Amino acid sequence: MAKLELVGLYKRFGAQEAVKNLTLVVEDGKMACLLGPSGCGKTTTLRMVAGLEKPDSGDIYIGGKRVNDLPPYERNISMVFQFYAIYPGMTVYDNLAFPLKQKKIPKDEIDRRVKEIAEILRINHILKEDAIRLPAGEKQRIALGRALIKEPEILLLDEPLTNLDARLRAVMRKEIKRLHLKLKTTTLYVTHDQIEAMTMADVIGVMNLGVLQQYGPPHELYNKPANMFVAGFLGTPPMNFLDFSYIVNGKKYFDFGEFKITDPELLNMLPSTLESNELVLGIRPKDVIISFNTEESDSYGWEIKVVEPVGDKYIVFMSLGDKSIRVVVPAIERGIEVGKKVGIRFRKETIHIFDRKTGNAIL
Ligand SMILES: Nc1ncnc2c1ncn2[C@@H]1O[C@H](COP(=O)(O)OP(=O)(O)OP(=O)(O)O)[C@@H](O)[C@H]1O
Ligand SMILES: [Mg+2]
Predict the structure, then answer these.
(1) Ligand 1 near 13 CB (within 6 A)
(2) Residue 1, pLDDT above cutoff 80
(3) Is-above-0.70 flag for pTM?
C-alpha cells in the first residue's frame, strides 16, 4: 500500500492533447475514481501510472518515490482492463497462481496465497474448474484475483465492469467495494459510469477533454459542483440549466425572458460583487416543485409535454416558450397530465448559479 501522487502530468499524441496538467493525490488505502466521457484521457492517465505510456511532462510518485523512469514491472502496480484476459486451458487455481509463478515464488507460498485470495473473492469452490468456461462474473473475479495476488501497492482498474450485464455490474460494484475495504489497496478506478463512481469511490475526479474538472468526495461533487460540466455529468436525470440575466437597475430580479424571479431571499444569496449578467440557474429535477396554483409558483404556464413513469417516480418534461425543464415527482402525485399548464417553484437551498461564459459555479 502506498500513496499515489500525480503532479502536472501532460501527454499528447501528435496534435491530440490527451491529458493536460493533471495533478491529484490518492491517499494510502483509498479508492479514487476518474470519471468522464469517452476520450477524456482516463485510460491514458492509468497507462502513465502503469508505465505503459511515458508522460511528456509531469511526475508520478508511488509511496513518495518518483517512478517515471521505472519500467512497469518495477512499479509494484497491478492493472485490470475492461477486456480482462483469462488464460485458456488453465484452471482457476493456475490462473491465480500465474503471476506468482512468474516471480518464482516457492510453491507452498503460492498455494497459501491462492487459497487466501480465492477465499476473499469467494471462488475457493471452483479452483479446479477450467477458467475459460466460467460465467462472466466469475471470470471478472479471477482477473481481480490475479491482480491482487501480487499484493500490489497500487491497483489500477480500467472500466472493469463495462462488459457485464446490469445485474452483474451491480453485484460486482458491491464486491469490489467490499474487497477494497478489506484489503485497502490504494486504487485508481476509471469509469464513464457515474453510478460506479458515486457508489464506490472515496474521491472522484471528473475529467473532460484531458482536464481534471474537480476532485473531491462524491457528495461534494454532487452538492457543490465546481462548474456546469460536473453539475451536468453527475446525477440522473441530469441537472436542468436555465439561462437568465441578473437585472440590478433599481429593483433586483432574475430575468429568464419568459418569467422572472423576484424572491429577495434568493437574490440575497448571490455574492454582492456579482457583475456578469449572463448567468445560468442549475436545478436538479428532484428540486423543482410542481404547483397547480399560480400564487404559489415562481413561474406559471409550463406545459406538460411528456410523462415518463419510472418505477415509483415520474420524470415530467415541461416547456415554457423556448425553455424546457425536467422534473421528478413521486408517481402518486395527482394531476400530472400531458397538455396541462402548471407552475414551478425551486427549492432555494438547492439552486446552483453558473457564469454562462466560463461555466464556473458562482453559487
Ligand atoms: N495511442 C494513441 N495514439 C493516438 N491517440 C491516442 C492514443 N491513445 C489515446 N489517444 C487519444 O487520446 C485521447 C484520450 O484517450 P483515452 O483513451 O485516454 O480516453 P478515455 O477517457 O480512456 O476514453 P474511453 O472512455 O473511450 O476509454 C483520445 O482523444 C484518444 O483518441
Ligand atoms: Mg479508456
Answers:
(1) yes
(2) no
(3) yes
